[in-house]
């Protein structure tokens, strides 16, 4: 069986989620009650029998490193292979690389030493549940130089404007990569490539003063190489803004959407935190809400997501909101269309109301 190694490249992911990325990169943003966004990418890799994963991080990665630790939650704390968190380390005085090619150049040992034949490169903003072994089989069958993964979306949202789109012929060969806002073939920032060919492209890109491996090393060679398109047809969410985060989080309250993303045969793993089950008192009223463990609920909650350790006092009302870890909502407070980051305290009788298209966001550790 051909082996695959993984690279999670966060270098070109912009922190566009306002208060949620004041203190962390987008990959470390909490999502779906108990996960971080990067959990889905790493879980996809480990479920695809990838045993060696590198994370290229440049900015605000302390929270990310704290969450990932040694990779134990994903069975990546190994003697051979495992998880490698690779923040900037520009110590080579002869290095002329720029952009994300600095990561590829300065961590070329990861590529050289891996026993894998192929590499999967992915970002963290596309939430999905995909098996990269299926992609590899199609890549080999098509005799492709590179296989890119895309999703044909039913409806275009503002977040899709920032994504690259694909033109594809009848043989699933990519004929153009562009930013046409009307195209529904959304490139998911994931591709698979043979290790030796990647090394060759990295060297050429650096020699020509390039700064973006995918755009300068792959897209620029489109007329001369075979770039194959693999369509992912499962549940997919592109999260690169507060609005897309709120909307796609809320979709998970639908049982079908939730079950399509969280599959029994391909579970999503995260850092384990041992907490007591959530406690619902006689005064509590909870409807259509995702509740993580460790919560104490005495008030009314509906159509919302509560992360671990949230406390909702008697008389408090929460609707259509996302409340992250260890927030405390005191009595008679009212929250509607609100996102609270971690460790916030909402005082007795306080009212916060946002709009569905523009939720009210509170940065972490705030008291209001």
Automatic annotation (TrEMBL):
It holds the Pfam family NTP_transferase. It comes from the Bacteria. GO terms for biological process: glycogen biosynthetic process. Residues 282-354 form the Glucose-1-phosphate adenylyltransferase/Bifunctional protein GlmU-like C-terminal hexapeptide domain. Residues 20-154 form the Nucleotidyl transferase domain. SUPFAM superfamilies: Nucleotide-diphospho-sugar transferases, Trimeric LpxA-like enzymes. GO terms for molecular function: glucose-1-phosphate adenylyltransferase activity. InterPro entries: ADP-Glc_PPase (IPR011831), GlgDAde_trans (IPR011832), GlmU/GlgC-like_hexapep (IPR056818), NTP_transferase_dom (IPR005835), Nucleotide-diphossugar_trans (IPR029044), Trimer_LpxA-like_sf (IPR011004). Keywords: Glycogen biosynthesis, Nucleotidyltransferase, Transferase. Belongs to the bacterial/plant glucose-1-phosphate adenylyltransferase family. NCBIfam families: glgD (TIGR02092). This is Glucose-1-phosphate adenylyltransferase subunit GlgD. It comes from Halobacillus litoralis.
């Amino acid at each position: 069986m051909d082996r695959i190694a993984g690279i999670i490249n966060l270098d070109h992911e912009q922190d566009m989620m306002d208060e949620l990325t004041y203190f962390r990169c987008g990959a470390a943003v909490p999502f779906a009650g108990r996960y971080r966004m990067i959990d889905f990418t790493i879980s996809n890799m480990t479920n695809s029998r990838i045993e060696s994963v590198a994370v290229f991080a440049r900015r605000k990665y302390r929270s990310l490193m704290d969450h990932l630790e040694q990779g134990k939650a994903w069975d990546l704390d190994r003697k051979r292979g495992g998880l490698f968190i690779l923040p900037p380390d520009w110590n080579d005085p002869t290095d002329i690389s720029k952009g994300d090619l600095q990561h590829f150049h300065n961590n070329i040992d990861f590529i050289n030493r891996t026993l894998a034949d192929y590499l999967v490169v992915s970002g963290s903003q596309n939430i999905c549940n995909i098996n990269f072994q299926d992609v590899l089989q199609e890549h080999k069958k098509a005799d492709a130089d590179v296989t890119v993964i895309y999703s044909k979306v039913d409806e275009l949202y503002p977040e899709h404007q920032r994504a690259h789109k694909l033109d594809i012929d009848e043989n699933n060969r990519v004929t153009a990569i562009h930013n046409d806002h009307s195209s529904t073939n959304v490139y998911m920032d994931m591709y698979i490539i043979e290790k030796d060919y990647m090394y060759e492209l990295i060297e050429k890109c650096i020699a020509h003063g390039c700064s973006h491996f995918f755009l300068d090393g792959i897209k620029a060679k489109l007329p001369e190489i075979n770039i194959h398109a693999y369509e992912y047809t499962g549940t997919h969410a592109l999260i690169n803004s507060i609005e897309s985060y709120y909307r796609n989080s809320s979709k998970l309250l639908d049982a079908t959407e939730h079950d399509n993303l969280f599959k029994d045969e391909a579970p999503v793993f995260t850092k384990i935190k041992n907490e007591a089950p959530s406690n619902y008192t006689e005064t509590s009223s909870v409807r259509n809400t995702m509740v993580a463990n460790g919560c104490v609920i005495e008030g009314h909650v509906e159509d919302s997501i509560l992360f671990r350790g949230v406390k909702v006092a008697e008389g408090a009302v929460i609707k259509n909101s996302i409340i992250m870890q260890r927030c405390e909502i005191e009595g008679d407070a009212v929250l509607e269309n609100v996102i609270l980051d971690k460790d916030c305290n909402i005082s007795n009788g306080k009212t916060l109301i946002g709009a569905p298209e523009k939720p009210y966001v509170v940065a972490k550790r705030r008291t209001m």
